[in-house]
């Protein structure tokens, strides 16, 4: 039997290149060959094959797509097609589901997992939006359903603020508006990383002074934080419901309702940067080991299925 072959597209900034090198080395120790730098943006598809940098992607035993910052619509389109032929991490169905904030909240709610109260309204349903802001106590948060890093997220205080925002929103090509109740919390959150159903790390994030968004790209800062077991269990359950192999679950504590709430589920949670590791956020090796185990298990399963088909 030939050695398993795994393709990788990994982010390089923030220590990502060093993480990739460790991942490649650890997989090599298990007899798994790797090809890195497989950005599907550079690929083309023809005759039933996707060719990227000289590699026929369908011949791989698995593909790890781990680069949020450089995703393009073309890359995602091919990612979806590839996921129908070989194992991808994450699998594309779960990935695309978790990338949509409304679909994520809707599914988690249907499984009894607390999220922010939400509304999805047609762009012409102004009455529905105004009803939402009244039902949510006069404060809501408008979110693009497919955004990340806090980009495009707007806090709306009262109907007057909503009235001022509506002319701008009406000029966009949005077909609907997704809004959430603004949750009373202490301006900190938990980021809990889950790999193959296990918690592999946690840290806290804090919003900057005079702001409420904890996203690092919005000016938030990180700090060492021990996870509450209730938060861990909730993160693992949310990841399982969504069907993700790898996830970073953002949770906050709702002071009004006295419960943890899943705010967002990230499909490509970053490893700790070298600067964050100096602060004591040191889960990288645990997470890396878990991802190596996951990839190993994934390729073994694929090769076993292939052997059965051949037999």
Topology, please?
Elements lengths: L4 E6 L5 H14 L3 E3 L8 E3 L2 E4 L2 E2 L5 E5 L6 H11 L4 E2 L2 H7 L2 H10 L7 E5 L3 H10 L3 E4 L11 E4 H13 L5 E6 L6 E8 L2 E9 L14 E3 L5 H14 L3 E9 L4 E8 L7 H5 L5 H27 L1
Parallel strand pairs: 1-2, 1-6, 6-7
Antiparallel strand pairs: 3-4, 4-5, 8-11, 9-10, 9-11, 12-13, 12-15, 13-14, 15-16
Helix pairs in contact: 1-9, 5-6
Compact summary:
Residues 105-292 form the ATP-grasp domain. The chain has helices at 16-29, 73-83, 92-98, 101-110, 126-135, 158-170, 229-242, 274-278, 284-310, and strands spanning 5-10, 33-35, 44-46, 49-52, 55-56, 62-66, 88-89, 118-122, 139-142, 154-157, 176-181, 188-195, 198-206, 221-223, 246-254, 259-266.
What does this structure look like?
The chain is an alpha+beta fold. The chain has three domains: 5-89, Rossmann fold; 117-181, Dna Ligase, domain 1, CATH 3.30.1490.20; 188-287, D-amino Acid Aminotransferase, Chain A, domain 1 (2-Layer Sandwich), CATH 3.30.470. It has helices at 16-29, 73-83, 92-98, 101-110, 126-135, 158-170, 229-242, 274-278, 284-310; strands at 5-10, 33-35, 44-46, 49-52, 55-56, 62-66, 88-89, 118-122, 139-142, 154-157, 176-181, 188-195, 198-206, 221-223, 246-254, 259-266. Helix 1 (16-29) crosses helix 9 and helix 5 (126-135) runs antiparallel to helix 6 (158-170). It is globular, with a radius of gyration of 21 Å. 35% of the residues are buried.
């Amino acid at each position: 039997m030939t050695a398993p072959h795994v393709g990788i597209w990994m982010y390089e900034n923030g220590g990502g290149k060093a993480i990739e090198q460790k991942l490649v080395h650890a997989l090599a120790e298990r007899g798994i060959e790797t090809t890195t730098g497989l950005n599907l943006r550079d690929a083309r598809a023809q005759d039933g094959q996707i060719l990227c940098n000289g590699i026929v992607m369908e011949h791989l035993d698995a593909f790890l797509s781990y680069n949020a910052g450089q995703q393009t619509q073309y890359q995602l389109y091919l990612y979806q097609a590839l996921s129908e032929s070989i194992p991808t991490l994450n699998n594309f169905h779960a990935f695309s589901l978790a990338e949509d904030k409304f679909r994520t909240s809707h599914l988690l709610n249907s499984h009894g997992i607390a999220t922010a109260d939400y509304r999805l309204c047609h762009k012409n349903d102004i009455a529905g939006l105004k009803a939402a802001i009244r039902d949510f106590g006069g404060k809501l948060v408008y979110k693009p359903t497919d955004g990340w890093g806090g980009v495009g997220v707007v806090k709306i205080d009262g109907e007057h603020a909503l009235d001022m925002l509506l002319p701008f929103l009406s000029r966009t090509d949005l077909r609907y508006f997704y809004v959430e109740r603004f949750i009373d919390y202490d301006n900190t959150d938990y980021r809990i990383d889950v790999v193959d159903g296990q918690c592999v790390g946690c840290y806290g994030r804090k919003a900057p002074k005079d702001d409420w968004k904890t996203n690092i790209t919005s000016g938030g800062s990180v700090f060492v934080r021990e996870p509450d077991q209730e938060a861990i269990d909730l993160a693992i359950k949310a990841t399982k419901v969504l069907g993700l192999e790898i996830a970073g679950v953002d949770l906050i504590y709702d002071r009004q309702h006295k419960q943890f709430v899943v705010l967002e589920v990230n499909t490509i949670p970053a490893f700790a940067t070298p600067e964050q590791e100096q602060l004591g956020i040191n889960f990288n090796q645990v997470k890396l080991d878990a991802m190596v185990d996951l990839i190993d298990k994934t390729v073994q399963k694929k090769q076993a299925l292939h052997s059965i088909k051949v037999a």
